[in-house]
Amino acid sequence: MFHAIIVFAMNYEETIKQLQELADPDKVPGADRYGIKPDAEVLGIRVPELRKLAKEIKKNHDLAEQLWTSGIHEARLLATMIADPKQFTPESMDAWAETFDAWDVCDQACINAFRKTKFPYEKVLDWTKRDEQFVKRAGFALMATLAVHDKKAADVLFMGLLPIIDREADDERNFVKKAVNWALRQIGKRNLTLNAEAIEVAERIAERESKAAQWIASDALRELQSEKVQEKLRE
Hints:
The chain has helices at residues 2-22, 31-34, 47-57, 61-68, 73-82, 90-97, 103-112, 120-127, 133-149, 155-159, 162-168, 174-188, 192-206, 211-224, 227-233. By secondary structure, the chain is mostly helical.
């Protein structure tokens, strides 16, 4: 028992050491651009490099949980890549979401892990009602991700999510409105039926006075009504 604990501790320390060796201060992103807190530790490691490291580590949920609490931006990104979706509970998903501090960590968690859990739609419904900026973003980022990757989902499921987009389209916060827009566009690109439904919602949103709603609608309509998207949907 004692030996197993020592091995695990070494695994975490070795991973942090590898991240520090990959650090490149010249590649550190601007905090404002990513929503990263000024006091966060950022190493400047590109996502492809993190994916390569994640491939070497393989799935290791205990290590992912440790990396999540490290306070290091790239360690959190790596955690999303090696976490085991099967080991998440609704409560542990909430625990991660409530500590999101940057849009890229939020989105990577949704793309790499949360969409593969047993509870993605439950969390979409929950998080899109929350007020915290990155929790709400996570709700819409997860919605967008499911629209892309859940190929077997019925149209009616996504039709049921469009009213949520309608409801939240007035949120002026940049990281929220961009995720709302992302979800609307991805749902509208699944097929012709959902494209028509998404366009109808976008046209309704466009009639509002809020700048957020108008931007979300105009940007979505530009893509969803484009010749490129229409041709692809008719293939």
